């Protein structure tokens, strides 16, 4: 399996620090989880049904004409390559590594491209995958550019796949309303914004004919009954959405300011994380880990081969703990 954030138990074993004593900033998941609604016994006892209101709530929340719930957007990432014949796939990189892995593992020729290289390669591609806002760089591309890329791909029967896992705070940049266009596929993650990654819920937004084919590939009952109840309750909570957007945006800005104060001004980020390119990435990651603070490190080849992603602290004590670690690191380096 590829490396991901959130592998806290591995850190527990490596550093000998009890799980409850960690400040886990390694994943881009909101640290404020939605309250769990009451789950009726029937949701546990009966097979899930698709006329319970989840799809309607999701269409309204995302502003999409049609969609398919899946067991986390990762399920769709792995299923999409099975719906095309072999071809050439471009992945706008660096980004969430599972995209390139899924296409490459299904026999496609995968080229990982930088933003400025898309124009050079797009007319030779069958599929282009874009994470918007990007993870981990935080780069956000305007809808107009993405739709232009889609048009060029679609005229040859190609696809534009846009992973909008971190889009909840900036719905004005989403392509959800455009997903009736053939060859435009948008993935949405539920768990990150709602702070409930463990429920494994996501949505695929696309034209209805495509969704029927994808549904057959994924199979029935991919989303459990309790998850469907919980998902609908969260998606219907408009006031909760407002509060979550407000506090994540404030926390993200505070995090950027804190990092800059200690000489680590981030090069990118979004409402749920900040991204720092630094030759000191490995050293700072290890320094924090020894103090029970887990960050996400990226040491891949390429122009961003030494970087860290910082998730959002939750409580004031967490902020003070992170600030103390950054301050101690800066003093030791002075």
Structure overview:
The protein has helices spanning 8-15, 41-45, 54-62, 73-79, 98-105, 118-121, 143-154, 191-194, 208-218, 225-235, 238-261, 281-289, 316-333; strands spanning 23-24, 67-70, 88-92, 109-113, 127-131, 159-163, 184-189, 202-205, 268-270, 273-277, 293-294, 296-298, 307-311. It is built from 13 helices and 13 strands. It starts with 7 loop residues before the first helix and ends with a helix. The strands form 3 sheets. The protein has a 7-stranded mixed sheet with strand order 2-8-7-6-5-3-4, sandwiched between helices. It has a 4-stranded antiparallel sheet with strand order 9-10-13-12. A two-stranded parallel ribbon has the order 1-11. It has 2 domains: 8-28 and 239-333, Aspartate Aminotransferase, domain 1; 46-236, Type I PLP-dependent aspartate aminotransferase-like (Major domain) (Aspartate Aminotransferase, domain 2), CATH 3.40.640. By secondary structure, the chain is an alpha/beta fold. The mean pLDDT is 94.
Instruction: Give me the count of strands.
Output: 13
Rounded to the nearest angstrom, the distance between the terminal CA atoms is 38 Å
| CATH architecture classification of the largest domain | 3-Layer(aba) Sandwich
Pattern of helices and strands:
HEHHEHEHEHEHEEHEHHHEEHEEEH
Profile the largest sheet. 7 strands, mixed
Q: Report the average pLDDT across residues.
A: 94
As for the number of domains, it is: 2
DSSP helical segment count: 13
Identify the CATH class of the largest domain: Alpha Beta
Low-confidence stretches: none
Please state how the strands of the largest beta sheet are arranged side by side.
2-8-7-6-5-3-4
Overall body shape:
globular
Q: Using only CA atoms, what is the Rg? A: 20 Å
Helix percentage: 25-40%
Structural class: alpha/beta
CATH topology of the largest domain: Aspartate Aminotransferase, domain 2
